[in-house]
Amino acid sequence: MLNKYHEDCDFEWINVNNLPDVIAYDEQVCGFNRTQFIQYSIGESSSVGMMARDIRNGKVMGYGIFRRSNLFYTIIPQPLYATSVEIAEVLLYNALQKFAGFDKVFMECWDINTDAITLATNKLGLDIVKTMNIMFTEYDIGANFGNIICNSPSQFYPF
């Protein structure tokens, strides 16, 4: 069962007012600016975006863009980034409520983040379908891999 709340964060839908904060957080995680990618992803009719903000200082603590796929009525987080797996869990829970009739989730979690795999397998009850190596390390690109909970499709990371 996923948690609905996190005591240190407020959760809000991503919109034009908070989008610059999301873009800045994304750049901290990825190591470079992906403004166009995020704008286009949020703008897709099949997508919703949610962010977490620290209640004490207003700092962004995570975000996710969630897309529906007609393939087997599946929801795909693309991406799901958070400073903790607990925040990612609340983002997942609340965003998934927007998708009535969609009863499956597909997540690509990298084995470099074992907490993300635990969230997918233990909390969501997802099965590991396949594993594959990522073709770079934290030394190749300046990413904060601990904040990358789900990044799908990973073969296109970081784009």
UniProtKB/TrEMBL annotation:
InterPro entries to which the protein is assigned, alphabetical: Acyl/Acetyltrans_Enzymes, GH10_AS, YitH/HolE_GNAT
Taxonomic lineage of the native organism: Eukaryota, Metazoa, Ecdysozoa, Arthropoda, Chelicerata
Ranges of residues in domain YitH/HolE acetyltransferase (GNAT): 22-137
Superkingdom of origin organism: Eukaryota
Cited Pfam families: Acetyltransf_18 (PF18014)
Keyword annotations from UniProtKB, A to Z: Transferase
UniProt-recorded name of the protein: Acetyltransferase-like protein
Active site, UniProt feature: E138
Molecular-function GO terms, alphabetical: transferase activity
